[in-house]
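Continuing the batch. This is chain 6 of the set; chains 1 through 5 are on the previous pages. Same settings as before, nothing changed between runs. Recording input and output for traceability.
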Amino acid sequence: MEIVTVHTTQNIDIDYEVGGLGERIVACIIDYAIMIPLIIIGVIVGPNIPKAGVIAMIILFVAIYTFYDLICEVYFNGQSLGKKIMKIRVISLDGGRPRFSQFLLRWLFRMVDFTLTGGVAALVSAAVSDKCQRLGDLVAGTVLIRTIPRTQMNKIGYIATPEEYQPVFLQAVELSDRDVALIHEVIGNYVKTGNNVAVYQLADKIREHMSITLPPEMNSMQFLQTLLKDYSHITTHADVVTG
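Output for chain 6:
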């Protein structure tokens, strides 16, 4: 399975698996199925409204059908309803959120991928490309990933240290088991949700409590990770000395 690495704003590399062809097909079917209730409503109310109303309904349906994917992906972080259900989303090949121009280019090539070729071009391209990309993805520089990270939280929250490692913050020895568990929980929550508010809040609270001044180049997430590294190294070394 191909892997895409996302480099977050907190300087953490998180690996995601590329979304498979089957997931893309099911997501597409779900998105098309959303249009069925609209058609049913149109068939039921159509005969009972003026001709101008029918024309307006047709225009509205065509607009929803045409722009559905573009609007959803732009405003819902690269996901339509089908993609959200299948736990896949569109990202840029560099691991970041696609620019609007990438979403637009990807959407424009739906005409080639689906409209003109009946979906054959998209199917063949996704089947033969390394990262399961349809033509629109190849041109726009995007890829679909599974939203569940391959990188496990414990690999992010805990970093092994060599014997010669020099702790950055000796105050880490003051951390309790509860403090360490809370730091792991906050980092794990960030990996799952991308919400960094708790990261900043916890880092500020610990810095204030321990009277720690951060180096200019260190951000809040790096601070929490360094604390865990220092704590692990100090306590492990202490255990060895005591033994």
